[in-house]
Amino acid sequence: MSGWDERQRAMLEAMGLRVWQNAAPAQAPAVPNVPAAAAATPAERSEPPPARPAASPARPPAAAPPAMPLRNAAAASPVAQMGWDELRAAVAGCRACTLCEGRKNTVFGVGNEQAQWMIVGEAPGEQEDQQGEPFVGPAGKLLDNMLRAIQLRRAPGTPEQQVFIANTLKCRPPRNRNPEPEELAQCAPYLDRQIALVQPRIILAMGRFAVQSLLQSNEAIGRLRGRVHDYQGIPVIVTYHPAYLLRNLVDKARAWEDLCLALDTVEQRRPR
Ligand code: URA
Q1: pLDDT computed for residue 247 by the predictor
Q2: Longest dimension (CA), the chain
Q3: Residue 51 alpha carbon to ligand 1 centre in Å
Q4: DSSP string covering 168-203, please?
Q5: Is residue 243 in contact with ligand 1, taking CB distance under 6 Å?
Q6: Residue 167 CB less than 6 A away from ligand 1
Q7: Could you tell me which CATH class the domain 67-268 is placed in?
Q8: Which ligand 1 atom is nearest residue 42's CA?
Q9: Phi, psi of 17 (to 5 degrees)
Q10: 210-214 long-range contacts, Cβ below 8 Å, gap at least 24?
Q11: What is the pLDDT of residue 17?
């Protein structure tokens, strides 16, 4: 008999995690069984390794912190006054940075406009650019599984069930390169406004660019996860980008912990 009850086991399976018999939930060395998919998005190349005691980074230490998106400027932007229709039109027609030149579609975001959960990713990849929808490639499949594991989804549902998914950038960077600080700054008012309109109870920030944009932090995900952060009064849980998880299967167990922390946070702050 394992330490997981039936419901927890079903959740873990939905997320692609296989649980050994006799594993206690607290340690839960859940063994991922989802194969890695081909790298396609910036996160797959850029997610820094999590903080580990004996970590010897394969890549050079991060350069000086990049300029962060300008939150004060964002607050003063006319975008901050827009309703949904105006905001959609503004994103669709945006030419604020050079990313507009290479895009096929802008990727506004999808989901319930009153969702309790908001997922913030990084930038569209090739498939997202083609379809105009976030997280439709391999990373999106994992995201869908992660959401299903905690009884959430992108498909239509109530604000309790259906999330809103948005990216920090609404246009695909060429060849899926990392977003530039200037691009993040230009796009920040759109994400800010989406969050202000949705007013979620919780934000899941996936990957380092979501974190940079929302928390103005250049810290590694591994250092920021495991606690509750704040974006304008809304709790933010930092977790690994699904594209990174596809290449780093062992960190799926940590991502599962992050989802559990998010669930607990929503539950604790639920109005009584
Ligand atoms: N990665 C992201 O961060 N967003 C997408 O929409 C797709 C991949």
Answers
A1: 97
A2: 58
A3: 23
A4: S-SSPPGGGPPPPHHHHHHHHHHHHHHHHHH--SEE
A5: yes
A6: yes
A7: alpha beta
A8: 1
A9: -110, 130
A10: 210/120, 210/121, 210/122, 210/168, 210/241, 211/238, 212/66, 212/68, 212/69, 212/168, 212/184, 213/68, 213/69, 213/120, 213/168, 213/184, 213/187, 213/188, 214/120
A11: 66
Q: Kindly list the domain boundaries of the chain, sorted by start residue.
A: 67-268
Pocket flag, ligand 1, residue 42 (CB < 6 Å): no
Please tell me if the CB atom of residue 185 comes closer than 6 angstroms to any atom of ligand 1. no
Q: Is the pLDDT of residue 60 over 90?
A: no
Q: Give distance in angstroms: CA of 204 to centre of ligand 1.
A: 13
Higher-confidence residue: 218 or 9? 218
20-52: per-residue pLDDT in tens? 444 333 333 332 333 333 334 556 444 544 333
Task: Give the number of other Cβ atoms within 10 Å of residue 257's Cβ.
Answer: 15
Q: From the CA of 120, how far away is ligand 1's center (Å)?
A: 9
Interval 177-210: pLDDT, tens: 999 999 999 999 999 999 999 999 999 999 999 9
Query: Does 211 score more than 50 pLDDT?
Result: yes
Mean residue pLDDT across the chain: 83
The CA 129 to ligand 1 mean position distance, Å, reads 10
What is the predicted pLDDT for the residue at 75?
64
- The DSSP bridge partners found for residue 236 are 203, 229
* Model pLDDT, residue 39: 39
Q: What is the CA radius of gyration of the chain?
A: 18
Tokens of 157: 């549902």
Q: Is the CB of 44 under 6 A from ligand 1?
A: no
Q: What is the pTM of this model?
A: 0.81
